[in-house]
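Tokens for chain A. Residues wanted.
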């Protein structure tokens, strides 16, 4: 049985506890044994090197250097990393090691909760196959991203709330390699109920399975 670890905490506005419960259920349905932790100290545990998948759900907050380095080393060795929204890519803002691994960092969501479109850029990728571009109402994340990411979906800013970014196509979903590890990220899912949007649930589940080490 493959083992996964979810570490949740940080800013409560992203419903980290509810998200952790939902994702735990999805992974158990896929045959994973799931460990739940609520402090960043879990990232320093040598046992994480034996995991198949790690899911951080920990907006903002702080990670100790030793914790970040152990987590990065585990992923470089082949452990998968997957996550969504601020729980993964607005976590640990002062850790460049962590950000290098994740492939992106949140910097703004102009207009806060707005209507926007998610456009598939690689509809034939196994993670996105059978899905279509879709409208969504939530935070439209503006991010600083790694050009090495393999982008699976984007969103285009209208400029209504920040005129200088009109027409910018911003990655929403990506996958990448980090050493021997696979990393998957989706910026969707500001609140837990959004994870049950069929398109979001499908791409998240597939993305986690893609990232997980066999």
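Reply:
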């Amino acid at each position: 049985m493959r083992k996964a670890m979810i570490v949740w905490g940080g800013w409560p506005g992203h419903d980290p506890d509810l998200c952790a419960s939902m994702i735990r259920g999805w992974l158990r349905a896929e045959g994973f044994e799931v460990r739940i932790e609520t402090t960043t100290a879990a990232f320093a545990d040598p046992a994480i090197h034996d995991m198949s998948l790690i899911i951080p759900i920990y907006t903002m907050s702080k990670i100790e250097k030793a914790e970040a380095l152990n987590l990065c080393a585990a992923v470089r060795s082949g452990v998968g990393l997957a996550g969504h929204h601020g729980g993964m890519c607005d976590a640990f803002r002062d850790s460049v090691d962590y950000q290098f691994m994740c492939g992106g960092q949140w910097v703004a969501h102009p207009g806060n909760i707005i209507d926007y479109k998610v456009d598939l850029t690689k509809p034939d990728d196994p993670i996105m196959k059978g899905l279509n571009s879709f409208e969504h109402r939530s935070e439209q994340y503006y991010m600083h991203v790694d050009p090495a990411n393999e982008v699976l979906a984007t969103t285009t800013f209208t400029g209504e709330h920040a005129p200088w970014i009109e027409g910018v196509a911003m990655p929403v979903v990506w996958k990448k390699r980090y050493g021997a590890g696979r990393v998957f990220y989706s910026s969707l899912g500001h609140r837990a109920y959004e994870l049950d949007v069929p398109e979001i649930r499908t791409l998240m589940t597939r993305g986690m399975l893609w990232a997980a080490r066999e």
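Residues 127 and 202 are 8 Å apart (CA to CA). The chain has a mean pLDDT of 98.
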